[in-house]
Amino acid sequence: MEIGRKLWVIAEGYIPSGSSGPAPQLTSHETACILNPSDRAAEIELTIYYPDRDPVGPYRVTVAPRRTCHLRFNNLDDPAPIPRDTDFSSVVRSSEAVVIQHTRLDSRQPAHALLSALAWSDR
Amino acid sequence: MEIGRKLWVIAEGYIPSGSSGPAPQLTSHETACILNPSDRAAEIELTIYYPDRDPVGPYRVTVAPRRTCHLRFNNLDDPAPIPRDTDFSSVVRSSEAVVIQHTRLDSRQPAHALLSALAWSDR
Amino acid sequence: MEIGRKLWVIAEGYIPSGSSGPAPQLTSHETACILNPSDRAAEIELTIYYPDRDPVGPYRVTVAPRRTCHLRFNNLDDPAPIPRDTDFSSVVRSSEAVVIQHTRLDSRQPAHALLSALAWSDR
Amino acid sequence: MEIGRKLWVIAEGYIPSGSSGPAPQLTSHETACILNPSDRAAEIELTIYYPDRDPVGPYRVTVAPRRTCHLRFNNLDDPAPIPRDTDFSSVVRSSEAVVIQHTRLDSRQPAHALLSALAWSDR
């Protein structure tokens, strides 16, 4: 049985510019945790949506078969870095069925905060 | 393929009256992150439900095509502001399919806390 | 159109016994946020499941039509209070379709932490 | 009516190696909260996926009928402990329908942080 979906949406997105604590673990970051449980490489395309300008993308990532990728949005830079302190949303399309969960670590203040939510998929 | 749904529910809702840290980033807030991936403007109507009085609404917001809107409940004021330190829930109806995720930043104490959850939609 | 479901599960449950900060807002608590958007009173029954003993319930709560109830598990006491510092899960059945989101405020340490997740429903 | 599903995915996974505060309550941990509302024991198998090596498993756990198990990934050690400070994902298969929610307590810094999300299931 196939596990997952090929289209996911993370409506929340925000990378705080400030951080406290040792890098990279406690650097403020926004992550899409992508599990590819299939036996084929998953070719992933992300499109980033903003409040006041056109979407940017696709960003391309490959997740190997039977591997997980905790993708930090902080590290995306092609076609363009994602600006800090800016609201965004993302749409993720995959060649294979995957499962995506969204997590943020916010260390703007010394005791960091966390959030996580299941991404949305059409079922 | 259409992405999203036209009816969403956020059962949790609470805007803390207290905040610490620089405004507006670290002002305690409650947010509905709304992605409109479609090619048409999404006319959004929110209704706010309370524990002990009739629902208030609709609040109206337009999300432009292919844009995201991280809507702070703190800023809603027509037909009426949402009281602080008060439990509420919200129902969101949209003219176009959208995806909604709920986030709170609570900075009542100096090291702020975060929560996030996917909103509920009928699938 | 009916909004919501009549059966919900919150697999996570834990009420920390310790708290810091002013009560009741910052008392450590576990909450089921229940929205009843219907025009009829929702008769709610909760059953609490434990790791090592039989389930306890039903706990009964009524949510009036078009009202929300942010139900603190801390306050349940009939048929029995829920012990602190104890893992549990809950199953919620409702006479009307409702939507449920789960939230915890944990103030065992002075800067409180938050978590939230959509409850699970059969769709 | 059967409650739950037999296949679940938690795409996020990370056990911080550091902790502050009294153990075991405030030890940094990653938890799968598993409710087995059925009348039969649920035989659970977990497989852990990593970014850069083959999946490890199955880990086997039994959840008794009508019981909850808040399973700490920290405690899994057969066939191998889960390394700290390492990204992972998990796939959970159960002989009976169950419901799973994911929670992390991160106490690397003195004021701990929490996150929680519903696990993903095929509906």
| Low-confidence regions of chain A | none
Oligomer: homotetramer
The whole-number mean of residue pLDDT values of chain A reads: 95
Instruction: Give the tally of β-strands of chain A.
Output: 8
Largest interface, Cβ cutoff 8 Å: B-C, 37 and 32 residues
Count of helical regions of chain A = 0
Range of helix content of chain A:
under 10%
Secondary-structure element sequence of chain A?
EEEEEEEE
Strand content of chain A: over 45%
The profile of the biggest β sheet of chain A is: 8 strands, antiparallel
Quote the distance from N terminus to C terminus of chain A: 15 Å
Describe the structure.
The structure is a homotetramer of 123-residue chains. With 123 residues, chain A is mostly beta strands. Helices cover 0% and strands 50% of the residues of chain A. Chain A has strands spanning 5-10, 29-36, 42-49, 56-63, 67-72, 89-106, 113-118, 120-121. In chain A, strands 1, 2, 3, 4, 5, 6, 7 and 8 form an 8-stranded antiparallel beta sheet that branches. In chain A, strand 6 and strand 7 (113-118) form a beta hairpin. The two termini of chain A are 15 Å apart. The model of chain A has no long low-confidence stretch (mean pLDDT 95). Chains in contact: A-B, A-C, A-D, B-C, B-D, C-D. The interface between B and C is medium-sized, with 37 and 32 residues.
List the helices and strands and how they pair.
The structure is a homotetramer of 123-residue chains.
Chain A lengths: L4 E6 L18 E8 L5 E8 L6 E8 L3 E6 L16 E18 L6 E6 L1 E2 L2
Antiparallel strand pairs in A: 1-6, 1-8, 2-5, 2-6, 3-4, 3-6, 6-7
